[in-house]
Design goal:
Largest sheet: 4 strands, antiparallel
Number of helices: 11
Shape: elongated
Number of domains: 2
Radius of gyration: 25 Å
Distance between the termini: 22 Å
Strand content: 5-15%
Number of strands: 4
Helix content: 55-70%
């Protein structure tokens, strides 16, 4: 029963976090990018261009395009991927539609929250919100559909990396603004938005998965192990070692702790054995035993 409760609680947290991330992403578009006629990469960026040209709703275009892509992807990528992506598409379309209605004035024009002429600030704020939103979705194992589906299909049948495929598609979408609008401003702002969005996304995703690994060479392994286990609730692996040159016996301790605990570990080691030799390195993607859960 406890395991079932834990799984249900974890699912609920994932569900809420994914929806929050999609809402933030949609708000970034509706509140800052669309009112200032800014686009960027991704399927949403492509349909933003379509919206600027024809007025066709972005949410409707996303639903139609993703429905076709999911039908194509059903057999090669499996029903799990398709179901998760389908939910994300419906939720994102709903949030975009709601955001556009909230940001539309009575005369049908977009409300510019920052005032006229604030394109640069709108570009930065919209890109930051996009990065935060997508990072929140990715960290909870979610998907936004769109480019993710295309890249996954190409990655399955061709020797092209997932990230590189997404980058190629983004550059094509943004570059298409010039022959359509003959406006260098849209191209420049599009690439700036993409750069900021990518930076924020990488920073949030990578920082959340960063922990610290310590390798400690010491003569006082028992006391250091005891303090690490009881003061940080992390475990330690003990190995017997010998210095090649000195032939002196020593213990080699290996432990991984959260990033915020690295100063505490260094102070602890210094208090027990100031002569200890310590190697500290960044560990990305640590799973199990008090760290991240492996998400299928």
């Amino acid at each position: 029963m406890n395991k079932q409760y834990a799984r249900a609680w974890e699912f609920a947290k994932d569900f809420l976090a994914i929806n929050l991330g999609l809402a933030i992403y949609a708000l970034g578009w509706a509140a800052f990018l669309l009112p200032y006629h800014i686009t960027t990469g991704g399927l949403t960026g492509m349909f933003a261009i379509l919206y600027y040209v024809t007025g066709f709703p972005i949410s409707g275009a996303i639903m139609i395009a993703n429905a076709i892509l999911l039908l194509i992807a059903f057999k090669p990528l499996g029903w799990r991927f398709v179901l998760k992506s389908a939910y994300a598409v419906v939720a994102l379309s709903s949030f975009l539609s709601l955001g556009q209605r909230m940001m539309t004035a009575d005369d049908g024009s977009f409300i510019q929250l920052l005032g006229p002429g604030q394109d640069s600030m709108a570009c930065v704020l919209g890109a930051i919100m996009n990065g935060i939103g997508i990072a929140t979705v990715f960290l909870r194992g979610g998907s936004t559909g769109g480019w993710d589906i295309i890249a996954a299909l190409v990655n399955k049948y061709r020797n092209v990396s997932f990230g590189r495929m997404l980058l190629y598609l983004d550059f094509v979408v943004i570059g298409s603004c010039w022959p359509i609008f003959h406006d260098y401003r849209m191209v420049v702002f599009g690439y700036v938005t993409l750069a900021i969005y990518t930076f924020v996304l990488d920073m949030l995703v990578n920082s959340s998965r960063q922990d610290t690994q310590f390798i400690i060479f010491t003569q006082k392994g028992e006391e250091i192990c005891w303090r690490i286990v009881h003061e940080t609730s992390h475990s330690v692996t003990r190995l017997n070692g010998e210095g090649f040159y000195s032939h002196q016996a020593m213990e080699v301790l290996i432990t991984i702790v959260h990033k915020r605990e690295q100063v505490q570990i260094l102070r602890l080691i210094h208090e027990v054995d100031p002569a200890a030799f310590v190697s500290q390195s960044r560990a990305e993607g640590v799973y199990g035993n008090g760290f991240n859960m492996i998400r299928a």
